[in-house]
Request: fold
Amino acid sequence: MARHRAIPIGGAAPAEYNSGVSTVYVIGAGASYGESLKLLDSLHTKFPLGQLRQPPLTNGFFRRSLVDAAGYARCQSDLQGFIGYVGRARRLTDAFGEGRWADLDLEDVFSALEVEREFHSPESDEGARLLLVRNELVRYVRRIVGICTQHAYGEYCRKLVSNLDFDDSILTFNWDLLPDQEFISDHQIYKHYANLFRSVPLSYADNMVNPVIQGRGLLLKLHGSLNWFRCGNKKCQANRALVVFVNTQACLAWKLGNENADCPQCGSDMNPVIIPPLLRKPITEDPIIRSAWGLARNQLMDASQVVVIRFSAAPTDFYASWLLRSTVGTRDDVHVEIINPCNADDHACYDGFKRRMDSIFLGGYSSSLHAFSQIESVRRDQGVVKELP
Reply:
């Protein structure tokens, strides 16, 4: 089993506060689904473009077409316990990935599993079995997201990052590494990603020189990330630390095998820092995730403009809706731009989507844009495109 060690980095001095105009981009799960994935420049000769697949929405993770297209041949053997559990609980008679499996909602499945686990002692046989089922599901989701985005970059995400000002921020609810890799070059972390280390004092990164910190903008991943880890030993100081693996492509490759990372302080296995798609998300129970949400609130309260990209505000996603409503929704001095296919008044989801947006953004918003590909027009209209040094 391969191991990958993290090397601690030195602290960086805080950047000077700048109270100028800033934009916060809020990226929902639909943004990854609506991305235009391209092969990384160095991989054009090794991988055909046809292998790239957008990460699925919450109701598409178990479709046979996705599993087959992703080339995940050992999927059913990896999910034996989970398939048996869900099949019995929901009386599914179809083969995995077909029939009712194809439209199962990931958040509903996760939440039902967690509720059932709460009714069993973790030391009981049934409690242990349900934990194994949960772990299978978490690994499956990580692998699907990893398979879909490995060897790729997001065309629209790259355009967004390339036009960021130093005080702009990105808040994303996705685990994928499409925005992360845009801030990393030759194992050096730049600007907004580097500012994370200024904000989280106890942090480590593998094979990285001191980060370049400019401005006060941040990349905040509010549900964690595929390259964020912490020590699994609760007695270790690094159990409360954020360990970031800079080599995003190598990290995605780990998801496809049984490779683990070692804690740089005690040698124990490290666990991914991710929040599964649950109805009751443990936001306040995790110190790192709690810090990310607190920093996100501050960024939203200070922003001059907020651009919300393919965020659906599903009724079950109370925490994300609360974050926006309690910050941007209470302000009259911020311009809000919503980019979503449901903005079209002839779209099937228009009425329900508009009601949800009206209930969150109480001061009003603009809703003329429908696709992530239109991100550049937002910046032109607002007149804030800048040449970065």
Summary: The two ends are 43 Å apart (CA to CA). Confidence is low (pLDDT under 50) at residues 1-19, 383-389.
